[in-house]
Amino acid sequence: MRRDTVLIIPYQDGPYLVRGPVVVRDQEGRDIELTRNPVALCRCGKSRIRPFCDGTHRLIRFTAPSPRETHWFDEPKAPAEPPRRRSIASTERPHRRASSAASSNSESRVEPSPLEAAAAIPTKLEPVRKQLVRVEERLVALLENGSWAARERVALRSAERLIEATSLLLALRPGSAGLAQSSRNEPIGGQTPCCCLIRGALEALFPAYGADDISELIGEVRVVLELLEAERWS
Amino acid sequence: MVMTALGTPDAGRQIAFPTVRGPWTEALLELLGLPSSKSFKSAEPSAGRDALEDDDLQMALYLCYELHYSSLEGVDDRMEWSPVVLMFRAALEREFEAALRNLVPTYEPQTPNIGQELQRLVREDDGPPLSRYVETQANLDELLEHVVHRSAYQLKEADPHSWAIPRLTGGPKAALVEIQADEYGGGRAERIHAVLFANTMRALGLNPRYGAYLDWLPGVTLATVNLMSWFGLHRRLRGSIVGHLAVFEMTSSIPNRRYGNGVRRLGFGAAAAAFYDEHVEADAVHESIAAWDLAHALAVAEPDLSPDILFGARALLALETRWAEHLLDSWGRQGQTSLTRPLDRATSHADQY
After folding, report:
1. Is the whole-model pTM more than 0.80?
2. d(C-alpha A220, C-alpha A13), whole Å
3. Which residue from B227, B215, B212 is spatially nearest to B56, judged by alpha carbons?
């Protein structure tokens, strides 16, 4: 490697080490003095001497791999299965089964609902799963309220689709079949099809509907999205 | 000649043989041909005394290693390789090694990935909160004692690890040299870390001269330095000095930030804190190189060294814990010094050297 090459190495759970002739400059054009080479630049975002690393990543238990992270659509392809439309309710909710338009194959199947499948996901997605359960319970309660106007019903149905999409997204694991494999779409603007669906639905729902309950529901769905983003699923 | 920040030409190191502490240091005094101490009465070796905390044994071992780092007043430089002195040192090292292997027995690591295992060891290390105490509560006496303890190593910072350079090859060698180059100032003498520590001592009103506080250092402190010298000077233990350096660097940035805060809390300025501030940033760089490019890479190149690497890492954590516990225990008891004697005798004693 030539001496004038700048080499950047991200270390596992640690900083970027930058070797070679490099200039670091703030956005006002002032050079930030480098007192050593290689220099360690903060990757966790929590150093108190940014842009330089000060070891805080260790305190906050920052984790990040060294190699490029693989996205879910880079995973080795499992045998393709047709997408399944599932009721987002479990089989213990007979009233939902009756009213849902999407329950065509939920009665005779033993496969878990998306939320149940999501229960087997890695622990770090647990907050998302719990939030989804909360949102779904609220949605069920709201749908049982017969007095909603048509416009509000549309909002609730959209939220239902949103929950469904998020649940399916959560249920996806590397190599698993499902929405990810069957869609095979390129991400739009760097986002997965699922998250586009979620974002689109949110944009449609918020802040058009004023009923407090729906606003709260939308707020909780936004939390789901934020949690997902935090886990870099978008 | 290089004018260091100490204000004096870099004349090299020289120490005086400290006060005899017991049969080991008395025997070494005689071996080195120095006049025997009139004030010391020969005592029985203290039976059952933990070798890792024995003030006498650890000082004798420290002085044996000092023959490689500096000259001793009144002692011919040739004594560094005197077979008799080396045999004496080997006897001390036998005690030292036996106690260490007992404290840190071999174990089956959770993963063959040594870089990852080192991270786990550091993450799960549950040492006493010494740096937190110095940051938030220590009084001036305690801070000064802390600095005197650390001077046993810091005034020759990085030298014990440098012994490993000719004993490594390839990637690990390059990584070690990269770290050491930074420790030694990156070509600028005034930035040598040992010089920065001397500046800190001076700014705190302490005597920055190499070896000035030998008599004040207890065995538990000397053991932490002897560990490094022992690892570094034996090729068979090159894995251990590498593991030691990796964990040393990995456990440096955060405590040094706290020590710097403690220094500032007690009213000292940038001159006193410079050593600590420099280490926060420097060791944030070094820890990645040491853990992965040095230790992990050495384990990949020479898998047989993996147990030694982990032994070095765990021995460091174990001895540092004992040392920190000693300090906090001593300070916890009102007015008790963590040194062998209180520091306020320093000024009169320094005149002897």
Report:
1. no
2. 31
3. B215
Residue type, A191: Q
Determine whether the interchain pair A36/B284 forms a contact, defined as Cβ–Cβ distance below 8 Å: no
pLDDT tens profile A155-171: 677 777 777 766 666 66
Please give the backbone phi and psi of residue B144, each rounded to the nearest 5 degrees, phi first.
-65, -40
d(CA B18, CA B349): 11
Q: Do A53 and B115 touch (CB under 8 A)?
A: no
- Cβ–Cβ contact A49 with B under 8 A: yes
Q: Are A86 and A93 in contact (CB under 8 A)?
A: no
Give tens-digit pLDDT for B80-103. Answer: 999 999 999 999 999 999 999 999
| A7-10 and A16-19 strand pairing | antiparallel
Contact of A52 with chain B, judged by CB distance below 8 Å, is answered with: yes
- In the three-class reduction of DSSP (H, G, I as helix; E, B as strand; rest coil), residue A209 is classed as coil
CB contact A40 to B (< 8 Å)? yes
- Does A54 contact B284 at a Cβ distance shorter than 8 Å? yes
Is-contact A35 A22, C-beta < 8 A? Answer: no
Query: Beta strands A31-32 and A24-25: pairing type?
Result: antiparallel
Q: What is the ipTM of this complex?
A: 0.87
Residues of A in contact with B289 (CB under 8 A): 17, 38
Give the minimum alpha-carbon distance from B257 to chain A in angstroms, rounded to a whole number. 8
